[in-house]
Amino acid sequence: MHFIFIITALFIAYSIRLISQLKVINYQKKWGLSLFLFAFPPLLLFMTCITVLMMGYHGEMWGIKASKFSYYLAVSFLIFAIFSLIKISWDLYKLTHLVQKYPLQIINGKQIKILQTSFPYAAQVGFYSSQLVISTGLIKLLSQEHLEAVIAHESAHEIHKDPFFFFWLSYLERLTFWLPNNENLWNNLLLLRELRADYTAAKTVDYLLIAEALLKVTNAALKQPKKLTFDLECPFLNYRLQERIETLLDNSNFSPKLNLWQIMWLILVFIPWIFFPFHNPC
To answer: Does the structure show a pLDDT above 90 at 167?
Structure first.
């Protein structure tokens, strides 16, 4: 019976990702649908494996005996998930520890860690309480007004707790690298994150300054190799320039809000737990 659970969960997860590739499924710029297509499959698999683990390999359900194969299959996935979490957590710890060594400077009333590199870099680094990091190359490249626009953009990431939430989303992305459309869905979520930060920043600074800063930073970054002492993306940089600038100019086609109703599908993740009482361990 456990094996049927696992196969069913795999079929549902794989089918959802296959369906997400259809042109009629327009998930771009839609937070709720994008999160469902991306996060529901791995969460369903995760909860299914936890259910099988709790049931054990003894007993039966509806006359079908449990098997050690399905039990150890679920355990193997959970072990992979645990080690993946340890790996991504350790990488984040090393990064935050490295950032703490950078000199601190007050710019526009904000405490900012300064990275000594010519590469134009700006990012919120950390977990729940993040730290803004800006490179000397970015400071030299931009005018005071454009630098304020970049800081407003990065501050928006802190407001929305993007480092925290995208830590977990990146974890799910690693767990399901083998599922269809994984990379496209992940990149779309990254774009939505940047669009939301642009939208929030545009409330405090001129949106044209954000667009101009984006162009300047991207052009400068393309002209030189990335010389950083750690492997981390620069969130302000995004080579889908046209989409970001068009959205800045016309926010009517983008809703940055993610409300509770858009993630009600999370309840469905716990469906495998419903079957636990029907398991007879004897």
So the answer is: yes
